[in-house]
Design brief:
Order of helices and strands: HHEEEEEEEHHEEHHHHHH
Number of domains: 2
GO molecular function, one term: ATP binding
CATH class of the largest domain: Mainly Alpha
Protein name: Protein kinase domain-containing protein
Number of strands: 9
Keywords: ATP-binding, Nucleotide-binding
Structural class: alpha+beta
InterPro entries: Kinase-like_dom_sf, Prot_kinase_dom
Oligomer: single chain
GO biological process, one term: intracellular signal transduction
Length: about 300
Amino acid sequence: MVFDTASLLSDPLAQEQGLEPVAGCPDPTLSVGATSSAVMAHFRGLAVAVKAYPSEIARGAELPHHPNVVRTLAWISVTDATLEVRELCVGGELFEAVAEIGQLTPALALRHLEELCAAVAHCHLNGQVFGRLRAEKLLLGFDGHLRLAVAFGGSDTPPQSGPPLDATAARADVWSCAALFCLMLAGEPPEDAGVIRGVGERGIEAYPAVADVCPEEVHELLRAMLSPNPARRPSAWACATALSAAREVGYSPGRTESADAVASNLTAPSRGCTGSEATASTENLADLDKAKAGERSYPAV
């Protein structure tokens, strides 16, 4: 069965829970899947992403909140379907920004790498791995900070309890983080997995500008993350911790001009929505973040 998610927003059961279509938005579609589309909607004053599933879907275990992981806000049962309501990352995909503005500055790329490692570490600590971390999972929030998307409908791999986490898949995630970092520096959005492999294999030495913003130990960390031997790669938690320490003493990306450019360019209204609507929804989401997450810290794992 193929679900029309947009039409389900008008279901009385959805509207009872505060879910409704976005007024003045002729095309709310965010992405198209095999069984339904993800669409933009309003949920209790917030701009959100919604996708429909069969009523009998086995929901994946939800991760505890983390500021760099896209979060599920609610599950709503409607007639013949279940709707998953998620945080809307108004900045879109990170690599769409790379395609628009070109290569990121080393400082901004390092900030996103730190956030990515912190998010991946959070997933690993909660029993979830990707095995193959795809570029389209890297999104930008209203604040310009990175959000890692876990698959709609649950985790990419079922949570594990008892046995240790799959170390090979977890180390593959670490390699992907470093390879995607290289793509940020190169300004080359990945068109397929081969591009990721090719850029990653060039190694961090191909990007000497990074020496301007980080000490040699960060170079060593990146070399280790890209090691062809999975056993030699550090854990995502170790990477996030090392990058956090390096940021405090060796580089300080903060709110660089490039970061502001990404945030301002990609949080602009799109798909025919009004500017006031986008501003109101991002302000509400900011309030929700403050209430739930408190002050941001790196790594928050």
